[in-house]
From TrEMBL:
Coiled coil: none annotated. Residues 293-413 form the Glycoside hydrolase family 2 catalytic domain. Residues 186-286 form the Glycoside hydrolase family 2 immunoglobulin-like beta-sandwich domain. The keyword Magnesium does not apply. It comes from Paenibacillus germinis. This is DUF4982 domain-containing protein. Residues 58-160 form the Glycosyl hydrolases family 2 sugar binding domain.
């Protein structure tokens, strides 16, 4: 549905910025010459990094944009909106200093109404500093931070031109539970719902206006559902007014992760009989609740939260991702079977949340933080960040929890007091009054968790299991497992941290770790749900390797555990915009082995039949074995979140411990057990005699074939084949969008050869460019590059070459 806004202009301000990665004296001046600077498109990263970077570029860089505002816009309100900038920003317009903003994850707006020249040249200049700062959340120095925040104008920038009588921006207005458009719901059922709309209007004319607000609810096809018209009010010059309206909806289409139906609110501001402003707000009608007895409920029905965590970064370009790239990530996580994402550990791009709204991924949104809580300006910024993130995202149906505890910031951290976190909880409820605000956070380290009073407390984590927080103190609250499956299996050397190229056995062990943990979680009657750590591999400032515990690697290629999670989805639910329904996957390379094989098959079907070269080796029902202890864990680190980073790297005797791996752990994975609490247990076939050829599986529901899968014994590498990862979005010709291009090394049968690590050279013709390494080294038979568009659409030819292999080429178009 495309909706035209006739009274306000929103202009994409991403193109043709001038950029330099150094500190330049005088670069804020209008007449300064930036002729020798790079010309870049936003989102933009100040430095192209390697895949395995830990300490990315930190320093000062400048951006300048030349633009024109035309005479026809005289007398209007003109502002520049930055979705985010990393992380200490100073802004000038035509040489006039306008703003200092501290924080790298939330938006800020610059009013340039009185600074622009009409029909003449204008310049906005931005100086960014992303060096370590103890006053800007997350506060920790990069070298001890467990993620990477990179730098630059890494999100979108827009120019807004409105009439002087207009709906305000909620973040810029700066009003508790106010500003902009605020939508809440009452009496929600399948029969009816009341949409309660609050609209904040500001009159910046020099005279009073007679104002009313007309609000219309449109369905997904843009058709009128219901309207409401306010009474007329006199709004004097320089003053503001909030209008409240209630729209009664009959037979509403309720938003749910399985059917994420979205409406649009069309808000019109009428001043002295003329439409002066129009705003469109996308909403989803739903109601949520959390309780120990009833678990999590949406629209009155219980739903188990089955989630993961996500960092917003990508290889080479860090966090500077296009809107489409964020959508592709969300779609992959949805297709994995997740219905929830925790945005570890900061508010992420609006485009990612747009995708969550559209695809049906529920969200926990955290305030920026990680093991740090200094008193003073840092805590003041935390308070403001809570307000700003709620004001930005309060109308989104996908956001169900607001994390206000600063990730892993326990009692040993200076300033991490019960009083401070109780205040954070109260700020959230002040910003979102009513029974649909749910704060969440860690209770570990809190002296009095009932005083802190998070609505959804996170479970405590110790070496053995996840426990409901403090039964005696919080008897009526369930617990949420905000991270599981990684750290408890070996700390910084966790056996859950594996690359795609480590081979079948370690990939199976990783999948077993998450299966064993998920089964344990599901056995906790008080559990509201959980989120695995992590959905996608990511860089870390504190460690020179990728954190490779993702279900997808950093190039968004799946590991075995991805298919385990995919098998947990309901085969009866079919999503309109994501792969769904029945599935089956054989977690095996079917390469040469001397002893009979244990073959693990993941499926959400009722039964699986396995074949070797077309001959059945048996039909299996889902595993039904007992729950067992994981095994004797012999790890290199003392795995204890109460310890500091330095202490975690030492053994009990104080000595620095060496690396451990799966070989040091007495574990018996895929023993047919530890699955009774899962939605769909794996199918474990034992004693399968290896014969070169094809291993295939047919999955059935009600005796009928529902899905099939086959793997073949890999032979010698012969050919290259190219695959473009679009994941529901064509490559946009905007100068910032990108797709991953995969060159698969295949044998004569078309099987990807998992042992192949050839170097592959990519060649591009057309309006696109490769960012990062080229040639690229294949891992597990696949070489990946990041292909970024240019600003003109057209046909793109991609060729791939590797010594000893038949080259290949593919054509596609940017749009």
């Amino acid at each position: 549905m495309t909706l035209k806004n006739r009274s306000r202009q929103t202009i994409n301000f991403n193109r043709n910025w001038k950029f330099i990665r150094e500190d330049i004296i005088g670069a804020e001046r209008k007449q300064f010459s930036d002729e020798g600077w790079d010309t870049v498109c936003l989102p933009h990263t100040p430095a192209i990094e390697s895949v395995h970077v830990d300490l990315h570029f930190q320093g000062i860089c400048w951006y300048r944009k030349h633009f024109t505002v035309y005479e026809e816009d005289a007398g209007k309100k003109i502002v520049v909106e930055f979705e985010a900038a990393m992380q200490h920003a100073d802004v000038w317009v035509n040489g006039t200093y306008k703003l200092n903003h501290k924080g790298g994850f939330l938006p800020f707006t610059v009013d340039i109404t009185d600074d622009v020249n009409l029909d003449g040249p204008n310049v906005v200049a931005v100086r960014l500093d992303n060096r370590n700062s103890g006053i800007i959340p997350p506060g920790r120095p990069l070298e001890s931070l467990d993620f990477s925040y990179f730098g630059g104008l890494y999100r979108n920038v827009r120019l807004h031109i409105t009439e002087k009588l207009h709906v305000t921006d909620a973040v810029y207005a700066g009003k508790a539970a106010g500003g902009g458009t605020f939508v809440r719901y009452a009496d929600v059922s399948k029969d009816s719902a009341t949409v309660e709309v609050q609209t904040h209007v500001l009159n910046e004319h020099n005279a009073a206006k007679t104002v009313k607000v007309v609000t219309t609810l449109l369905d997904q096809e843009g058709r009128h559902v219901v309207s409401a018209e306010s009474s007329s009010e006199t709004v004097y010059a320089g003053e503001e007014q909030t209008f409240w309206q209630a729209l009664k909806v009959t037979k509403p289409r309720l938003w749910h992760p399985n059917i994420p139906y979205l409406y649009t609110l069309h808000t019109q501001v009428i001043g002295d009989g003329h439409t002066e402003d129009e705003v469109y707000t996308r909403i989803g009608i739903r109601t949520i609740a959390f309780s120990k007895g009833g678990g999590f409920a949406i629209n009155g029905e219980r739903l188990v939260i089955r989630g993961t965590n996500r960092h917003q970064q990508f290889p080479y370009i860090g966090n500077a991702a296009s809107n489409n790239a964020h959508y592709r990530d969300a779609r992959k996580l949805k297709e994995a079977g997740f219905n929830f994402v925790r945005l570890g550990h900061y508010p992420q791009a609006p485009a990612f949340l747009d995708a969550c709204d559209e695809l049906g991924l529920m969200v926990a949104e955290p305030v920026p933080g990680w093991q740090y809580c200094e008193e003073g300006e840092f805590q003041d910024l935390v308070r403001q960040n809570i307000r700003d993130m709620i004001r930005r995202d309060r109308n989104r149906p996908s956001v169900i929890m607001w994390e206000v505890s600063l990730n892993e910031t326990y009692h040993r951290r200076i300033g991490a007091t019960d009083e401070f976190f109780h205040e954070c909880h109260l700020i959230a409820h002040e910003e979102y009054p009513g029974d649909q605000m749910f704060t969440c956070g860690d209770t570990i380290g809190r002296t009095n968790p009932s005083y802190v009073n998070f609505d959804v407390p996170y479970t405590l984590w110790n070496d053995e299991n996840l426990t409901r927080p403090l039964e005696e103190v919080l008897p009526d609250k369930g617990g949420f497992d905000r991270e599981y499956g990684d750290y408890e299996f070996g700390g910084h050397e966790s056996t859950s941290r594996v690359s795609r190229g480590v081979g079948e056995q370690k990939l199976l062990l990783q999948a077993w770790n998450y299966q064993w943990s998920l089964n344990r979680n599901r056995g906790n009657r008080w559990s509201l749900g959980d989120a695995s750590w992590v959905g996608i591999d990511h860089n870390r400032g504190c460690y020179p390797r990728l954190s490779e515990c993702g279900a997808l690697d950093t190039f968004r290629l799946p590991k075995y555990v991805y298919y385990f999670y995919q098998s947990q989805r309901n085969p009866e639910i079919v999503h309109e915009h994501a792969e769904s329904g029945p599935m089956v996957f054989i977690a095996n390379e079917w390469s040469e082995r001397t002893s009979p094989a244990k073959v693990v098959v993941y499926s959400n079907c009722e039964g699986v039949e396995l074949f070797v070269n077309g001959v059945s080796v048996g039909v299996q029902l889902p595993d039904q074995g007992p729950d067992t202890e994981y095994g004797e864990r012999i790890t290199g680190y003392e795995v204890d979140y109460w310890l500091t980073d330095e202490e975690q790297h030492k053994g009990k005797d104080g000595s620095v411990q060496g690396k451990t791996d799966a070989g040091d752990m007495k574990v018996f994975p895929h023993d047919g057990g530890n699955c009774r609490n899962l939605a769909h247990a794996p199918f474990t076939f034992t004693g399968v005699t290896y014969v070169p050829g094809e291993l295939s599986a047919i999955a059935r529901i009600g005796g009928k074939e529902a899905a099939q899968c086959a793997v073949r014994t890999p032979l010698e590498p012969k050919d290259l084949s190219i695959r473009i990862d679009k994941s529901g979005k064509e490559l946009a010709a905007d100068g910032a969008d990108f797709v991953f291009v995969y060159a698969e090394i295949k044998d004569v049968n078309g099987t990807v050869v998992p042992s192949a690590d050839n170097e592959v050279l990519f060649d591009i013709e057309g309006p696109a460019v490769i960012v990062g390494a080229n040639p690229a080294r294949a891992e597990a038979g696949i070489a990946a590059v990041l292909l970024q568009s240019r600003e003109t659409p057209g046909e793109i030819m991609v060729r791939a070459y590797s010594t000893g292999l038949k080259p290949t080429a593919v054509k596609f178009a940017s749009v």
